[in-house]
Design brief:
Number of strands: 9
Shape: elongated
Strand order of the largest sheet: 6-5-4-3-8-9
Helix content: 10-25%
Oligomer: single chain
Number of domains: 1
Number of helices: 4
Structural class: alpha+beta
Length: 199
């Protein structure tokens, strides 16, 4: 039976071994040949008022980099986060933030069933798909996401709402996260998509 290393130097050796394994996995996934770049883009977004609550509808294009695809197929779960901010529009001063929402989804490949599972981290709901393309298309079709209570808005004021989507690498193990920080193919985040919201 192998026992865990003891003492400061034992823990350091364990950490360095984990770092080396993570490096090998990432550089194998990244490859030295030319690879397809990933790309996230919010194509369209709007918010409609129903029963005193604003609900978001959006279309987002998710294209994973080759490195992220290979990591996913090797069993690494990917976390995608939608960032949604609502602020009041003012002419000569910074816009004060009224509300902020972080909606998170986890995408994982289950080798036994050969299915791609998308789990809503906020609610716990999940759905499975036969391919990564269908899973990403499902993720990108946002329908009826509650984002804001109408009571938070003042009548006659103007508000802006903006959103973006990004791959959250903070969920990865420490050694892997340190390496990913230096690799461009893991920096997947869309531009902000912004529009006016009128109460």
């Amino acid at each position: 039976m192998i026992s865990a290393p003891k003492g400061r130097y034992g823990r350091l050796r364990l950490f360095m071994a984990q770092l080396l394994v993570a490096a090998l996995v990432l550089f194998e996934a990244s490859g030295f040949a030319q690879e397809e770049d990933g790309h996230f883009e919010v194509r369209s977004a709007s918010a409609g008022l129903i029963g005193g609550v604003y609900y978001l509808n959006a279309q987002i294009e998710y294209r994973l980099s080759q490195a992220a695809m290979e990591a996913l197929e090797s069993g690494v779960a990917l976390t995608i986060e939608l960032q949604i901010d609502v602020g009041r529009v003012r002419r000569f001063m910074p816009d004060p933030e009224v509300a902020s929402l972080r909606q998170r989804y986890q995408l994982q490949y289950h080798a036994l069933s050969e299915r791609f599972v998308v789990r809503n981290v906020n609610s716990g709901e999940q759905e499975s798909f036969p391919s990564v393309a269908s899973a990403l298309a499902g993720l990108g079709d946002v329908r009826g996401l509650p984002v804001l209570d109408e009571a938070l808005l003042d009548e006659g004021r103007r508000y802006r709402i903006r959103m973006r989507a990004g791959l959250d690498v903070e969920e990865f193990p420490g050694p892997m996260r340190l390496l990913i920080f230096w690799l461009d193919e893991w920096q997947l985040v869309s531009e902000w998509y912004e529009w006016l919201l009128r109460p």
